Amino acid sequence: MAMLEVKGVSRFFGGLAALTDVTFDVQKGDILGLIGPNGAGKTTMFNVVNGFYSPSLGEVYFNQKKISGLKPHQICKMGIARTFQVVKPLQRMSVLDNVIASAFLRVKSRAQAEEIAIETIKFTGLYDDREVISKGLPLGKRKKLEIARALATQPEMILLDESFAGLNPSELDDSIGIIRRIKERGITIMIIEHHMKVIMAISDRIVVLSYGQKLAEGTPREIGNNPLVVEAYLGEAESA
Amino acid sequence: MKKTLPLIIAGLLAVLPLIGLSSYWMHILILVIMWSVIGMAWNLLGGYCGQVSFGHAAFFGVGAYTAGILYNKLGISAWWGLPLSIFIVTIFALVIGYICLRLKGPFFALGTLAMGVILRVMAENLTTITEGDLGIMIRERTWIGKTWYFYIILILAALAFFLVKKVIESKLGYYFVAIREDQDAAESLGINTTLYKTIALSLSAVITGLAGAFYTNYMGYIDPKIVFALHDISIVTIMVVMVGGVATYWGPFVGAVIMVFLAEIIRTIPKLGAAHHTFFGILLIVIIIFLPNGIVGDLPKLKKLFGIRRAS
Fold first, then answer.
1. Has residue A239 got a pLDDT over 60?
2. What share of chain B has pLDDT > 90, as a percent?
3. DSSP per-residue letters across chain A
4. In chain B, which residues have their Cβ closer than 8 Å to the Cβ of A89?
5. Nearest CA distance, B305 vs chain A (angstrom)
6. What is the DSSP string of A14-29?
C-alpha cells in the first residue's frame, strides 16, 4: 500500500523550476532512497512533503489524505517527521531536553515525555551524552540527535536528509544500523543520500532526480544498471 | 535548599516593612518588586521564547489605563483594574501578536516598538477616553502609608514567579525554548509556532498589564508619556532582564534591584542626573560585552573572576 503519494508535483521559485512534474509513491514499511546530483531538487522535495513549501502544481497524499498546503506542524502531527541536512539542534538545550521537546508532541506530562525521550536516545546511542549541551556535540552525534528528535515525535514515516554526510566509516556503520532498526520498527523511511554504497545497500526502491525531474525509479539493481542514471549521475561522479 | 530559596526570599521580603523602614525606602522596595514583575513577564517572551519585544510599555500602559479609566469614567475603585486588565490586555496582546508575530527577530522587535509608540499617540489623542496629556489622577488614595501597596505587589510578584516557573517546567516551556533556538526545526517537530508564540506573548502581556494597573493605584497619577514611555518603560524592561540574566528565574529580580538603585543613585549626582539614560546605555554595553548572560546567567564567570582576584 502506498503510504506517501507524490502526484505531479512542481515547485517554481520565480522563473526557476526546482521540481517539474515529479510523481512517485513510497510503500508502507519501505526505505525509499532519493538521489541525484547537487541541485537536483531533493531537499526541495523534502520541503514540499514536510510542508515548508506548498507545491506550485500537483498534490501530496499521506495515508490517502491530502497534505500539500498544510503547515509543517500539522504534517508532523499526522505522522511525518524529518531531519535537516544542515543540522538544527536546539543549541542551548541538553541532548535529553532536545528530545523531550519533540516527545511532547504526543504526550502531555513531562514524565511521559522524558520516558519516550530516554527510550529514543538509548535507541540512537546517545544515552551517555544526554546531559551534554547540544552546541558542543561533534557532527556525528548531532546527526544522531536529529534522528532521535524526529523519532521522538513517534512518526509513521521519517524523512532523513543526508544523515550520513561527513561521517567517518565507523559512524557510518553505526548510522546504517540505526536506520535498519528504524525500519524494523515498521517506520517508513525516505532518505536523501550521496553515499552510493549506503543508498544501494539499504534502499528498497530508489528515485533519481536530475534538474528537478524524475529521471528513473526502481530497485537499487535496476538503478545501477540504468544507462541514463549512470550517464547523468554515477558516470559524472566517476569521471570527476 | 534550592527549592526553598524562593520561599525564604519571599519570607524575608514580607517581614521587611515590619522593621520600620522610612517611606522613601518602602517606595524603592515597591519599585524594585514592580520592576521584577515586569522583568519576569518580559523574560517569559524575550528570554525563554526568544521574541525580543521593544514595546512592553504598550501592555504596561494598557493595564495602567484600564485601572485609570475605570476610576475616572465609571467611578469604580481603580483596584478593579487589576482583574479587568487581564481581559483588556489579552485582547490587545492578541491584536498586537496577530500583527507582529509573523515577523521574526529584529523585525518583531521593531514591530513591537512601533506598537508601543502607536498606543502612546492614541492615548494622547483619544482625549474623551483618556484625558490625553492631562493624564488621570486618582484623587482618593486607598492608603496613606506604603505597607499595603508593598504587600500587594509582593503577592503579585510571588504569583508571577510561580507562574513563570510552572510554565517553563511544562510542555509550554520546552516549546518556548524550542522556538527560541530554531523556529524552523520547532515547526517541523510538530510545534505550532504561531500558537505558542501567541501564548507566550499573551502571558507576558497580562503580567505586565497587572504591574501597570498596580502602578496607577500606587502612584495615583498616569499620563501617556509616563506609562507608554519608550525609554523609561520598554527599554528599562529589557535592561532589567539583560542585566539580571536572560532566561533565568532570578535574573529579573537581580536586574530590578540594580536598575532601580542605579537610577536613584544617578539622580542624586548634580548636573549629571538628567543624563541617566547615558549611564544605562554604558551599563548595557558593558553587560553585553562582559556578561552576555547577565549577572545570574554568568554567575560562575563572576565567581571565578573574584576567586582569581582573591588568590593574587
1. no
2. 47
3. -EEEEEEEEEEEETTEEEEEEEEEEEETT-EEEEE-STTSSHHHHHHHHHTSS--SEEEEEETTEE-TTS-HHHHHHHTEEE--SS----TTSBHHHHHHHHHTTT-SSHHHHHHHHHHHHHHTT-GGGTTSBGGG--HHHHHHHHHHHHHHT--SEEEEESTTTT--HHHHHHHHHHHHHHHHTT-EEEEE---HHHHHHH-SEEEEEETTEEEEEE-HHHHHH-HHHIIIIIHHHHH-
4. 181-182, 185
5. 23
6. TTEEEEEEEEEEEETT
Span B248-302, pLDDT tens digits: 888 899 999 999 998 888 888 877 777 777 888 888 888 888 888 888 888 888 8
Chain B hits for A108, CB-CB cut-off 8 Å, are 171
Lowest mean pLDDT among A54-58, A108-112, B125-129, B270-274: B270-274
Residue B312: the pLDDT is 42
Cβ–Cβ below 8 Å for B181 and A92:
yes
Instruction: Say if the ipTM goes beyond 0.90.
Output: no
The beta-carbon neighbor of A153 closest among B171, B174, B190 is B190
Ranges of each domain in chain A: 1-79+156-167+188-240, 86-154
Give A1-79+156-167+188-240's CATH code, choosing from 3.40.50.300, 3.30.230.10, 2.40.50.320, 3.90.110.10.
3.40.50.300
Average pLDDT estimate for B104-113: 91
Q: How far is B172 from chain A (nearest CA, A)?
A: 9
Asked if residue A240 has pLDDT above 60, the reply is no
